[in-house]
Write a structure and sequence with these properties.
Pathway: Nitrogen metabolism; (S)-allantoin degradation; (S)-ureidoglycolate from allantoate (aminidohydrolase route): step 1/1. Pfam families: Allantoicase (PF03561). It is a single chain. The protein is mostly beta strands. It has two domains: 164 residues, Galactose-binding domain-like (Jelly Rolls), CATH 2.60.120; 146 residues, Galactose-binding domain-like (Jelly Rolls), CATH 2.60.120. The protein is 2% helix and 43% strand. It contains one helix and 21 strands. The strands form five sheets. Strands 12, 13, 15, 16, 17, 18, 19 and 21 form an eight-stranded antiparallel β-sheet that branches. The radius of gyration is 21 Å and the shape is globular.
């Protein structure tokens, strides 16, 4: 078992493309496109694959400054705004062309101003001071800030290439949008968070809480095959204490490896366990929807048990937050 308090990389990457992350601006991307920074999965490399501008890299790479002053920067709009707990600078495959130092700053923006306006703002807040990084390696940096951010800026000092930028943290919704309609209390974008799980051999349980539909098995949560009498589980902190009225347990894309059954248990603010969904058989490749009878007290955490193991695409828990 892994707890996010021991390793911030257990938390979701708020900047990754499948969550809606986007690289909206860069001052230079001569050799390799800025959009690669937020691609899911590790960077790939094929030697001796040359384009019109040189070796093709799966990352963001700028031209050489040749001693001229200035630094290169790229701005990422987080797919899910939130509190940032840690940053990973991944320079995979960049060996003679990585930046010797980088820094990261953040910004909270209302609405949807143009990228040029965001780049021109002078109120960026430092999250990671200028630090040294190596070539062809992943370097993690913990962050200690409780503010909600919508954008981050990666600055290379002075130039070079970075394969991936990972921004791990906890989603925080826009308070102005809460209460305007049915709410998925288990969505990352609404502030839900995976606290712990029994197994994440094939993929992260955070993907259960992603928006949209999974397109392949790799976009859900899948455990290793159990060889004992136990079962796998994941525990989730909801967006806030609330009342759950509808559960959706989605096994889409999981055919020969979906769980045989599942159950849901809620936890109230004083830690009392309440049954939300008794152990119920599941079908492969199916979006199951279950009407729930809410308990008297509000629920703030939920444990999903699957029997005995397998994979799920998504978990949705629709309801309302308490006052």
């Amino acid at each position: 078992m892994t707890d996010y308090r021991d390793d911030f990389t257990f938390l979701p990457d708020l900047a990754v493309r499948p969550l809606g992350g986007s690289v909206i601006w860069a001052n230079d991307e001569f050799f390799a496109e800025k959009e690669n920074l937020v691609n899911p999965g590790p960077a790939e490399y094929r030697p001796s694959t040359f384009g019109h501008k040189g070796q093709i890299y799966d990352g963001w790479e700028t031209r050489r400054h040749r001693g001229k002053p200035g630094d290169d920067a790229a701005i990422v709009r987080l797919g899910i705004p939130g509190v940032i707990r840690g940053i990973v600078i991944d320079t995979a495959w960049f060996t003679g062309n990585y930046p010797p130092e980088v820094s990261v700053s953040a910004l909270a923006v209302d609405g949807y101003p143009p990228a040029e306006d965001i780049a021109a703002r002078g109120d960026w807040v430092p999250l990671l001071d200028r630090v040294k990084v190596g070539g062809d390696c992943r370097t993690p940096f913990a962050a200690d800030d409780e503010n909600r951010w919508t954008h981050v800026k990666l600055t290379m000092h002075p130039d070079g290439g970075v394969a991936r930028l990972r921004v791990h943290g906890e989603g925080r919704p826009d308070p102005a949008l809460l209460g305007l309609g049915p709410l998925d209390l288990a969505a990352l974008e609404n502030g839900a968070l995976v606290l712990d799980c029994s197994n994440r051999f094939y993929s992260s349980p955070n993907q259960l809480l992603y928006p949209g539909q999974a397109r392949v098995m790799g976009e859900g949560w899948e455990t290793a095959r159990r060889r004992d009498d136990g079962n796998d589980w994941v525990r989730i902190a909801l967006a806030g204490p609330g009342t759950i009225r509808l559960a959706e347990i989605d096994t889409s894309c999981f055919l020969g490896n979906s769980p045989g059954a599942a159950s849901l248990t809620g936890f109230t603010r004083d830690g009392t366990e309440v049954e939300l969904l008794a152990r119920t058989d599941l079908l492969p490749d199916t979006r199951h929807r279950f009407a729930l009878t809410p308990p008297t007290d509000a629920v703030q955490e939920v444990r999903l048990d699957i029997y005995p193991d397998g994979g799920l695409a998504r978990l949705r828990l629709y309801g309302e937050l308490t006052a």
